[in-house]
Amino acid sequence: MDVFSYWQGFYNDPWFWQFPMATLAISMAAFLTVAIPWTVVAWLDPVSLRKYKIQQKPFEMKKFLLPSIGRIVINNIILASLLVIGWPLLKLTGVHNGALPAWYIIIAQLLFFVLLDDFLYYWMHRYMHENKWLLRNIHSVHHRIRNTCGINGNYMHWVEYSLTATLTLVGPIVIGAHIYVIWIWVILRQIEGADGHIGYDIPWNPAHLFPVYEGPVYHDFHHAKFKGNYAGFLPYLDKYLGKTHIPAYLRYLQQKKKGLTPLEIEQIEQNELLVRKRKKQPGKPT
Fold first, then answer.
1. What is the C-alpha to C-alpha distance for residues 114 and 228, in angstroms, rounded to an integer?
2. Distance CA 214, CA 266 (A)
3. For the chain, where are the alpha helices, taking DSSP H only?
4. Can you tell me the distance from the alpha carbon of 116 to that of 160, in angstroms, rounded to the nearest whole number?
5. In the 3-class helix/strand/coil scheme, how is 91-143 assigned residue by residue?
6. With 80 as the cut, is the pLDDT of residue 276 above it?
7. Long-range contacts (CB closer than 8 Å, 24 or more residues apart) made by 264-271
8. So what's the pLDDT on residue 279?
9. What whole-number distance in Å separates Cα of residue 120 and Cα of residue 189?
10. CA–CA distance from 257 to each of 5, 151, 178, 273 (Å)?
11. Given a cut of 60, is residue 205 above it in pLDDT?
């Protein structure tokens, strides 16, 4: 079979618009639905929420707001082009729009997508830090921002953006998922992607309703400390796949269990850091 024949008149194929193009549009709509309100919050930086800021310093709004929007536009144009190029292969997959599976099958499939995607993402993300060329030329783009807000979630090199999107589709393609299930999955994935960058650890954040998700603190520490905390949904991967948890993040969780706010936790960290510095200087009172 000549797969390249599938390019002929692809733009007239309803399945082309329903599968790759609609999935891309829904994915971006889900991201912006979460990212925009939290970006507005970060821009306003209300006093009432400052005690929940994970990093007690100004958001990098003026420097990275417009570049983040530009990256979103450019990256999605490139990804759409790659989906067009890959359409002959995508059309051969088992993804379908036939009968929906039972609700419990859908739940099981979504759980499988989370587990597989996070496992693959952990290793891709970790390798982008451990490989000097990838870190310098690709992943460093995303790490230009140390104190992120929602819109920064998709501020990344187009190669990393495309690879992340590819990992998202691996699970659905492997099992030949229903297109509606894929749409639910990409919505969940983009909610996590935006929420992980909002910069606030607020107890009533609706994202905490996800049973396997620990909120934005996990990834925020990755931006602040640079190395470690490589997974997306499932922080336990750092524990079992190389002990790559960030120590400050683990201390944060311990303090949070005591009912402390991010502001109070950072004040404790700063005081302990000051004590350690004084101990290293002979003759200085502790």
1. 20
2. 19
3. 14-16, 22-44, 61-85, 87-90, 103-130, 132-137, 158-175, 179-195, 217-225, 236-240, 247-257, 262-279
4. 18
5. CCCCCECCCCCCHHHHHHHHHHHHHHHHHHHHHHHHHHHHCHHHHHHCHHHHH
6. no
7. 264/51, 266/55, 266/56
8. 72
9. 14
10. 59, 29, 40, 21
11. yes
Report the alpha-carbon distance of residue 79 to residue 162 in Å, rounded. 6
pLDDT for 2: 58
Do 156 and 141 meet the contact criterion of CB atoms below 8 Å apart? yes
User: Is the CA virtual torsion 240, 244, 247, 248 positive or negative?
Assistant: negative
> Facing residues of 200 across strands?
53
Q: What is the pLDDT of residues 156-189, one digit of tens each?
A: 999 999 999 999 999 999 999 999 999 999 999 9
- Residue 286 reports pLDDT greater than 50: no
CA distance 254 to 134: 34
Give residue 274's identity as a one-letter amino acid code: L
What amino acid is encoded at 221 in this protein?
A: F
Q: Is the pLDDT of residue 1 over 60?
A: no
